[in-house]
Amino acid sequence: MGLDQFVFRAPYDENDEEAMPLLTFRKENWLNAAIETLLGEEVENCTPVEISRAQIEELIAKISTVLKDHDQAPVLLPTQRGFFFGGTEYDEWYFKGLHRVRYDFAHLLDGNAEASFVYYIWW
């Protein structure tokens, strides 16, 4: 078990067994904390929340800032503790995760100019 994170195209029907995620991440606990900060609310397990293109663009900008200045990591994209959330160190895996998430979200936005998205976690 662990923190599994998914991004779907909105609207998302969690009862639709055919729904395929556009993005999938595992134990990127800082991402969950960042989404909660962008939304201004806690993201509950197995509860889809809509995220806008503007929020994703803001996330990408924060990631880019942290990748340029690693000292900004605990300020802009802090890790989040949780039983299934994995490590909370600002180590090479944290920064590799930042690169991957930035790349994946940038490509998601490139191919979906007018789309809305849903973030969904499961642990």
Please explain how this structure is put together:
With 123 residues, this protein is α+β, with helices and mostly antiparallel strands. It has one domain. Helices cover 41% and strands 15% of the residues. The protein contains 4 helices and 4 strands. It has helices at residues 29-39, 53-68, 73-76, 92-110; strands spanning 4-9, 23-26, 49-51, 117-122. Strands 2-1-4-3 form a 4-stranded antiparallel sheet. Helix 2 packs antiparallel against helix 4. The longest helix is centred in the C-terminal third of the chain and has 19 residues, at 92-110. It is globular. The mean pLDDT is 93.
SSE topology sketch:
Layout: E1 4-9, E2 23-26, H1 29-39, E3 49-51, H2 53-68, H3 73-76, H4 92-110, E4 117-122
Helix pairs in contact: 2-4
